[in-house]
Amino acid sequence: AGRSDVGRMTLELPHVGRDAWVHRTYWQLVLPAKEHVVVAPPTLTQEYRWGWNGFFWGRQALLDQPALEAWCGARRLTDLPEHTNRYLYSALGNLNRCEIYTARRPVIVLAASGAALILGLLWLYVRVVRHPFCLAAAAAALGWALVVYPEPTWLGAQAAGLGVVLAAGAGWLQRSMDRRRGAAREPASAVVDRGSRHGTPAVSAPGNLESTEVAPAHLPDRNP
Predict the structure, then answer these.
(1) Backbone angles phi, psi at 5, to 5 degrees
(2) Residues 158 and 55: beta-carbon distance below 8 Å
(3) How far apart, in whole angstroms, are the C-alpha atoms of residue 72 and residue 69?
(4) Is the pLDDT of residue 209 over 50?
């Protein structure tokens, strides 16, 4: 209650007294289905594995709510709604506060797809972008992002699918237009050559200064 809808949040976590010795702490975060964690708390360990969540490749918590309740001996609560995003973090000792960054799914899709579409259009219309050096730099940047920020990179890669499809459609339209232009630029001489094969005399264009000699037709002799 009282938290911002998206962006950076600073949360006060429940903790036990100062004299209590805590070996390990688990914290489960439940968000609406259309809200995702973009940057996880750096002081916490993420307890999840990657797997399919419906049609998307995402994070799955290693322990669900019944398993956490059994682990700590808490009473059984009502099960969580099915259409939610659940995240599990752990730490050694007590947890006092943490910072986390979230974003709405439409915002993530718009940003990632827009970036993918812009890069695709640059690839199509800017020759410098297709240089091997630029491609190597882009591959190196993508590899660095996967190593340093794997979660936002995977999340952005899936959200960029719409932009990739639009860029591919733009490339297909460009190739179709190029083929039509190539067919329209067929030389006029080829048309004349095809017509001359059927006995059609070639007619010089107006203003042509070159003359063509025509051999006189052979007429039969009228004298007996």
Answers:
(1) -65, -45
(2) no
(3) 6
(4) no
